[in-house]
Amino acid sequence: MHFARTLLSASLVTLPALTHAQSTSSRSLETATAAPRREHAIQADLGLAVVGLAYENVMSRHLALQVEGHVFGTWFWPIFSGLPNFTGGGIQTRLSVFLLGDAPNGVYLAAFARFDVVGAQARDQSHGLGFGGSVGGFAGWSFAIADRYNLRVGAGVQYMDYEVPTATSRVVARTVYPAIDLVLGYRW
């Protein structure tokens, strides 16, 4: 207990001094550079199979990591490929590498992994609930807009694996499919 009080007291004394020193040095650094680096973002992911809300952190000059929660749907499968529609929600993680320019601007390559809980309907009209996931990648361009916003536009490919057991059968889709990347973010 004594150690915790000592640590807390020391923190209360040193943190304001460190914060002041850091803000003073960062202000002088910002005047020397054109624009401050925006390392965090809240993003709207408006992809082909997901609509999600994400948080992204710039990890280094050319690398950013994103985590996301989303609603999922393969509304396009019955229309374009004859595969069943899976709907649900899930999580996704994404690693982006910015090849030209500093993250999060310029040409990028991104890899993602997605896990979803989904429902589907079999041909005999029976319904079920199951799991699935996708892995894939994008190539695209990230545009800076008014210093605080960015827009990513890209395309790629993904492997999608979804299976839902119903009362009478299993609804299964395992396929490689195009991926569209459309992300709008607010940076701070």
How many domains make up the 3D coordinates?
2
Arithmetic mean of pLDDT:
86
Task: Indicate the CATH architecture of the largest domain.
Answer: Beta Barrel
Q: Low-confidence stretches at least 5 residues in length (pLDDT < 50)?
A: 1-32
Number of strands: 8
| CATH-derived topology of the largest domain | Porin
The dominant shape is elongated
Reported for the largest beta sheet, the result is:
8 strands, antiparallel, barrel
Report the radius of gyration as a whole number of Å.
Answer: 22 Å
The secondary-structure class comes to alpha+beta
Q: Could you spell the SSE succession in H and E letters?
A: HEEEHEEEEE
Distance between the termini: 38 Å
What's the helix count? 2
Helix content: 10-25%
| Spatial strand arrangement across the major sheet | 1-2-3-4-5-6-7-8
Query: Which percent range describes the beta-strand content?
Result: over 45%
By CATH reckoning, the class of the largest domain would read: Mainly Beta
